Amino acid sequence: MVIDPGQDAVADLDALLGEHRLKPVAVLLTHGHIDHVWSVAPVCGARDVPAWIHPEDRDLLSDPAKGFSPQTGQVFGGLKLSEPDDVRELADGAVLSLAGLELTVEHRPGHTRGSVTFRTPVEDFQVLFAGDLLFAGSIGRTDLPGGDHAAILRSLAKTLTLPDETTVLPGHGPQTTIGRERATNPFLRDVAPHAGPTRGL
Where is the Metallo-beta-lactamase domain (predicted)? Predict the structure, then answer.
């Protein structure tokens, strides 16, 4: 699975796929901002695979300027993107079975209205693909169209119920864990004051 192919992703992705002799089965999108969807149409089109996105962000696939302030949006005003031929909509709580893996979709609005996370099952080594919800030492911005600070705090509170050992792969920056962010992330002090569950308890 390819998650959030941004600008200039195609060449590096082609090299990686060729090196490891891999064939993608789908493109998964955590949200619709252009730095996460720029290359979705060419990646899907070249390999005839579907793209999955939450319906609240689907319009950003073809009109990325909607995701920015009017001033910033002017920069992308002439940019024409298109949807892939096969776009499928994500629903909260859905379980995707792709390439022998299962990922649970969780709608986590706040950064955008259609932001989602993808996580592997708890009983396995748990990984959370967080998009721009949670970063190492920070959280997603909420000052762009579709952003909502109160909503992202609610989304974070739900996400922080995951086990401390959960590996978080953010949309930007280094990986982290739920436990590390709960203990050290200054933006989460009022969101999750208590430790979360530990796997196996």
Answer: 1-172
